[in-house]
């Protein structure tokens, strides 16, 4: 191999920044199935940043699903890799790599706050490069979040392309669901305009959020759940919420938001 494919990112990170996506990965049926059935439960955390904390957190959380999961954090900056290796516990490794995934064949790749820093025309190529390296049945999470992880959006992809879009937040930290628009993945953020499906979804979520304002007396999490139910009643293919819901999560199939 000629070397890592990609460019150096800013590297900002923080403890618990990716907790919402980690919790979703643990409970998402397709992700759990891929991890459980994998012959080699290898997970790659791509572009973990200046500190390896989110990689270590990912490993700890995914071991609820399978205790023999191996997690490898990849970075383009050799200094970040060297620093992270000094803190690596058993079952977690760090190496030099980019979208080529250092030649590995993982069952799951998490690339959070990476492609947001790239031009939109480079996203498809980055996806394709990662997809070629996936193990059979492998998945990719391409996501973005704010600095403290209270507003997050991510795409789940398989070897053929995007599967679903998820919006997740602390319902106490928003005024309306469309506040999450600023964290849409790179491939969608420029399509949040009138006439595009993702704009229609966010606008409908805002209307539903306003319509169920009365549920706010029971707290914003109950209001969020009522909003999801109203969206489903209005024909949006929103995935059912988990029984015990700590986060505000809205997941729809890619077909519901794919740009036109």
Keywords:
260 residues, globular, Rossmann fold, alpha/beta, 8 strands, 31% helix
Give an overview in words.
With 260 residues, the chain is α/β, with parallel strands linked by helices. It has a single domain (1-255), classed as Rossmann fold (3-Layer(aba) Sandwich). It contains eight helices and eight strands; from the N terminus they run ααβαβαββαβββαααβ. The protein has an eight-stranded mixed β-sheet with strand order 3-2-1-4-5-6-7-8. α1 (19-27) packs parallel to α3 (53-62) and α7 crosses α8. This is Methylase. It comes from Mycolicibacterium rutilum.
Give a short summary of the structure:
It comes from Mycolicibacterium rutilum. The protein is an alpha/beta fold and 260 residues long.
As for the number of domains, it is 1
Strands, total number? 8
Give the radius of gyration: 18 Å
The CATH class is identified as Alpha Beta
- Spatial ordering of strands, largest sheet: 3-2-1-4-5-6-7-8
How far the N terminus sits from the C terminus, by CA atoms, comes to 37 Å
Label the structural class: alpha/beta
